[in-house]
Amino acid sequence: MDKFVIQGGTPLNGTIHTSGSKNSALPALAAALLTDEPVVLERIPKVRDIRTMQRLLVDIGSRMEEDGERTTIVTEKIVSPEAPYELVKTMRASSLVLGPLAARAGRARVSLPGGCAIGARPIDMHLAGLVKLGARVSQEHGYVEAVAPDGLKGTRFTFDRITVTGTEDILMAAVLAHGETVIENAAREPEVVDLASLLRKMGAKIEGDGTSVIRVQGVTKLHGATHRIIADRIEAGTFLIAGAMTDGDLTVTGCVPEHFGAMTAKMLEAGVRMTQVDDTTVRIQPGGTLKAVDMTTQEYPGFATDLQAQYMALMTQADGISIITETIFENRFMHAQELMRMGAKIRLDGRQAIVAGRSPLSGAGVIASDLRASASLVLAALVAKGETVIDRVYHIDRGYESIEEKLAGVGAKIRRAE
Ligand code: EPZ
Q1: Is residue 307 in contact with ligand 1, taking CB distance under 6 Å?
Q2: Distance (Å) from CA 127 to ligand 1 centroid
Q3: Which of 80, 177, 320, 365 has its CA 20 to 30 A from that of 334?
């Protein structure tokens, strides 16, 4: 089990370049199933979840070629329209093949994801959308099967609540359906817009992506395309918070500032000296006085739930009491216990965490539990007095490309150990 060993107390100074977005690359890879022509994706991050999705696509029938940061996917034939339990249990986002397989092959058999650390994470809304599009959906032995032998039929579908991969799944199913599909209460995340851009390059007819109503005119066939994945706004946001916590002078390049949504205003309100240098560069400067500011996670453009754990680590270093409310997932405070072991003063009350800052942190042995919780432990370790050892860092490797190299490159004392 890989560990990170971190000596705290060094401000981060220098420049970090943002990788491609994991949460944009995953649906983009699934979208390649929609055509028998080559799809070339650039800036795919080299992280575990991407390797899992690539393995899944190969099992389904895709040929994968990687050279540097370009990945070419060719799926001449769907050999096995299935996502097996052993893959899905490691990555819930495998459900993103449901829509493309139902659309391309008229059949999809995907293991139900089962729970994960941050919550039950059902896919009932994905399935409701497929049923509305005319698929017959059944469930047995822990698998869900969607069958549409005569193809899918355009429809009007309203999501009960906003779901990012649910929107992406139904969008990918609708592009090859007969007739028009209107998706209401759709997710507006930048990753949904990036997927729609790729699908349009492949010949899909889509408008309204980025708003809560997406209109799709089905087409009979999609062709190949080349697409550059957007920057990872959660990775970039994580590094900006690290710069603020360590009172460093840190520049993050290759990002898309407007994709931070409400995080930017929240950081400024909390006294972080954060400035946009140009349309792909943001800089944190030292000398800010961190003050406690309440935060509630919301769907985009609200404060991203994927940055909640990192923001909690920041608030442990801010003067005053802050209340953090998590509205998206039911169990996304796993990092709080570990932060408390490092000296943070946090009280959990259902969907709320009350943080009393500023509390000096001291290095400790901690355990990573899920992707973003582990990122918050890294941030805390960077300011803690002494040495922190973070166990089970495979959680971090799921979504951060070479995080220890990137942090060491700006002065962090971090190394990977067995
Ligand atoms: C996406 O997950 C992201 N993953 C998550 O990032 C992110 O936290 C989440 O969106 C919210 O922004 C990818 O894009 C691969 P949801 P997703 O469906 O689509 C409930 C990370 O750290 N729900 O928007 O799975 C669900 O349980 C990951 O990179 C249903 O009840 O999230 C949750 O409470 C973690 N039924 C809420 O909706 C459904 O059918 C929003 O989930 C679908 C979702």
Answers
A1: no
A2: 15
A3: 320
